[in-house]
Automatic annotation (TrEMBL):
Keyword check for Coiled coil: no
Family note: Belongs to the bacterial solute-binding protein ModA family.
Identification of the protein by name: Molybdate ABC transporter substrate-binding protein
Protein source organism: Gordonia westfalica
Gene name for this UniProt entry: modA
Pfam family, one: SBP_bac_11
InterPro entries: ModA, ModA/WtpA
Amino acid sequence: MRGLAVAVAVTGMVLAAGCSSDDGNDAGAVTLDVSAAASLKKTFTAIADEFEKQHDGVTVRLSFDGSSTLVNQIRQGAPADVFASADEKNMAKLGDLAVDPEIFATNTLVIITAPGNPQGINTLADLNKPGVTTVVCQTAQPCGAATEMVEKNTGITIDAASEEQSVSAVLTKVTAGQADAGIVYVTDAEAAGDKVTTVTDPAFAAVVNSYPIATLKDAEDGDLGSEFVELVLGADGQRILTEAGFGAP
């Protein structure tokens, strides 16, 4: 009888262990995967923090990169419940994988230089001055496509030293002293603060990027993803975006 009792006890322990979560104390925890354009890093980090405060047991896992790069990753099976793009073109590439995209913000371009603007850049044309090293985004990325549109509108082709895969990479090259100037979004320039000097050109006002957001068709938790989208579109999300310099939808 004693042997039977021990066997029953051991079996009970095994069953209890089998019913426990692999995450131990994190049993019941949920992760929401959000892929967002590089220019949204500061704002979506703040929005994700707010979302986690409102949803006990939920962790928002953020992935930032150029919109085109993120689209390719999603198509290749990268985990994503929500996607926020810096333009409508890249959202459209997902086709019916993106569920009812909605515009949540707008943005425009600006020139950034080293602090104090030592090269004396005052207009778009000045980016082609002798001795000026300029970096821009790849045309596949929204910031690059917008830059190309500005070039077409003005008839000025920028002789760029390199084309980067995200607006963050452009910003990094300028702040690291690897380039004299770059073209980024207004919001990126504001976030950089005194690390850069901002130079505006009237031509930028005519090219406005609209940012769409959507849950994804194969999302692990579509309802939770929809709640994240609602936060972005709602008063709290819009306040965070406006404070960062984004325009209204």
